[in-house]
Amino acid sequence: MQKFAFIIHPLDIRDVARKFAFTRYLPERVVESAFRLVPPMKVSHITGVKTPYGEAEGWFVACPLTARQMLELPEEFVLKRIIQAGRVAEKLGAGIVGLGAFTSVVGDAGITIAKNLNIAVTTGNSYTVATAIQGTKEAARLMGHDLRRAHIVVLGATGSIGSVCARILAREAGRMTLVARDKSKLEKTAARILYETGLAVSITSDVKKALRSAQVVIAVTSAVDTIIGPEDLLPGTVVCDVSRPRNVSRQVAEQRDDVLVIEGGVVEVPGEVNFNFNFGFPPRMAYACMSETMLLALEGRYEHFSLGRDITIEKVEEISALAQKHGFKLAGFRSFERAIHPREIEAIRARALVRLNAACSAG
Q1: Residue 54 pairs with which residues in a beta bridge?
Q2: What is the DSSP string of 109-178?
Q3: CA 203, CA 191: separation in Å to the nearest integer?
Q4: For residues 327 and 330, what is the distance between their CA atoms, to the nearest angstrom?
Q5: Cα–Cα distance between 237 and 148 in angstroms, integer?
Q6: Is residue 16 scored above 80 in pLDDT?
Q7: Residue 156: pLDDT above 90?
Q8: C-alpha span between 165 and 133 (Å, rounded)
Q9: N or C, which end of the chain has less CB nearby within 10 Å?
């Protein structure tokens, strides 16, 4: 039996109530301050991960810091807490530990954490990229977009996930805009894409400007607050929101019934898997980063895999092949914690066409 662990943390203080129900009755600031002092802990035993090629069990280990705390507290303090969580995984017998949500963002994206543990470490970013691209391409197809003609926008294009998403999509894109804060990094990414694919991409730090003409968007920034609102998108736009916390405001779902927002990296895990913990998904569903950790464990590959800021296309293709071998697959589409039926996508597309035609007539 292969063994793995996955480090999770509350995205905001309301997530603490998933494990400690009494906290919902306390002021959020009090709970957040108190949990800053709580040491990492095992929160559940994961069972039933089984394919024709292997079987694994694992554990969720919690690092009780919110996303905001991970970005605002001293980096040294946060890394120390994550390393402590990794040592809990070691004691449980895991051969590899995955870094979930902001634990994979802090510092140097897992490298320092890996140096301080005696087991393998992965951020899961390679499989996150693979599923984000797969989901985006299929959603775009269903909404009637041809990637060769659509305007593709990548938010967070200089990050480890965003840059490789852009490089892979550029193979099929006709028009692309990269968005990030650091102009020099944007220029470097754009030059690399031009060299690899021949596509001359646009760059900007202005999110709102880029979104005005976008038809396909991959959002993968490390922003704590949402950056895409209902007023930012054209009718018919497809947005794949890979970020946690989300880059897309919930108001988009509430106010825009003519755009399709999907969650990146939602995977159906083979076997009768039981996570024994409610992280907001239906049975057998997991984030791609969790799934990468399981895949490496099933293969007995207790080695550092997706670490640092430079995720390679080769590793994205390698983990995609392992997923196909073991029967991990994209779990349809989800948006804001609920499944989207194909008929709903047809209705979104129909409303978008009506509004685009009306805008053209008015113009």
Answers
A1: 51
A2: TTHHHHHT-SSEEE--HHHHHHHHHHHHHHHHHHTT--TTTSEEEEETTTSHHHHHHHHHHTTT-SEEEE
A3: 11
A4: 10
A5: 15
A6: no
A7: yes
A8: 7
A9: C
* Cβ neighbour number for residue 127 with a 10 Å cutoff: 32
Coil, strand, or helix at residue 331? coil
Where do we find the tokens 């080695």?
303
Altogether, the residues listed in the chain come to a count of 363
Is the predicted pLDDT of residue 32 greater than 90, yes or no?
no
Q: Give me the domains of the chain, ranges plus CATH numbers.
A: 2-126+267-330 (no CATH), 131-265+333-362 (3.40.50.720)
Burial of 341 from C-beta contacts in 10 A (0-12 / 13-18 / 19+):
exposed
- Per-residue pLDDT tens over the stretch 108-142: 889 999 999 999 999 999 999 999 999 999 999 99
Distance of CA 76 to the CA centre of its chain: 24
> Which tokens in the block code for residue 138?
């299929």
Give me the amino acid identity at 123. Answer: T
The whole-number average pLDDT for the span 144-171 is 93
Coil, strand or helix: which one is 218?
A: strand
Residue with tokens 């990794």: 86
The separation between CA 28 and the C-alpha centre of its own chain, rounded to angstroms, equals 26
